[in-house]
Design goal:
Number of strands: 7
Number of helices: 9
Helix content: 40-55%
Structural class: alpha/beta
Shape: globular
Order of helices and strands: HHHEHEHEHEHEHHEE
Bound molecules: S-adenosylmethionine
Distance between the termini: 37 Å
Strand content: 15-25%
Strand order of the largest sheet: 3-2-1-4-5-7-6
Radius of gyration: 16 Å
Length: 215
């Protein structure tokens, strides 16, 4: 059965272990610091009065960075357990950090354009392309301006790297990395256009950070 990112993170045990397990090794710490650096850069040109939607916010890893630079953040996630960790961690920011439990797939049916900018980190690569499109389209519907999202880019070099990793018994973290052509399909389907992108350590990770705006 396919690993399910919608239900997996609803476990209290998974939520409580998330930050420690993913980002405590040396490689994890470096990757975490690098990701946060690029997030800060992606939001650097945006007025600090903007209301940021962080969806899914998980344990508030990136919300913490954005709150630290002065933004107000609404963190939305389908998992009560992940949100509980985020609220505990980010108490010091008071009412600059709000949380909501919701399924992104339903939110955009009732609401539109109440956030200025949005972040969608580390989730799209867990879904097939059609589901990625509807996930990102919902976020774009909720947002007036810029949408920053992360994905995993599938290039010939990264496909070879994946094959070698699998032969060595390692499961790559992203179930559905996308090619350059699929990235364009994703953007178009979500009603967005790319305005900037960062691809740090292209030989070591598939990670890509895309800054997009309404098309
Ligand atoms: C890997 S975590 C990423 C969290 C955070 N953005 C980060 O980078 O640390 C993926 C999150 O997506 C949430 N999620 C999955 N499906 C969702 C949906 N349909 N609506 C809202 N959140 C969802 C999960 O509960 C989980 O917290």
């Amino acid at each position: 059965m396919r690993w399910n990112p919608v239900t997996h993170y609803q476990s209290v045990a998974v939520a409580e272990r998330y930050d420690g397990e993913r980002f405590s090794s040396l490689a994890g710490r470096i990757f975490n610091a690098l990701e946060k650096y690029h997030m800060r850069r992606a939001f650097s040109g945006i007025s600090r009065t903007a209301l940021v939607l962080d969806l899914p916010c998980g344990t508030g890893r990136f919300a913490e960075v954005l709150l630290g630079t002065g933004f107000k953040v609404v963190g939305i996630d389908i998992s009560a357990a992940m949100l509980e960790v985020a609220r505990r961690k980010l108490q010091r920011f008071g009412d600059r950090f709000q949380t909501r439990m919701a399924d992104v797939r339903q939110l955009a049916q009732h609401e539109s354009k109440q956030y200025d900018v949005a972040l969608c980190a580390r989730v799209l690569m867990h879904f097939p392309l059609e589901e990625q499109i509807s996930f990102l389209r919902s976020i774009a519907t909720l947002t007036k301006g810029r949408v920053v999202f992360t994905q995993s880019l599938s290039t010939p070099y990264q496909r070879l790297r994946r094959r070698i990793k699998r032969l060595l018994g390692n499961q790559p973290p992203a179930g559905y990395p996308i090619t350059e052509a699929q990235l364009q399909t994703l953007l178009e389907g979500a009603g967005l256009k790319e305005v900037d992108r960062v691809r740090p350590m292209a030989l070591l990770t598939e990670a890509i950070y895309v800054v997009a705006e309404p098309a």
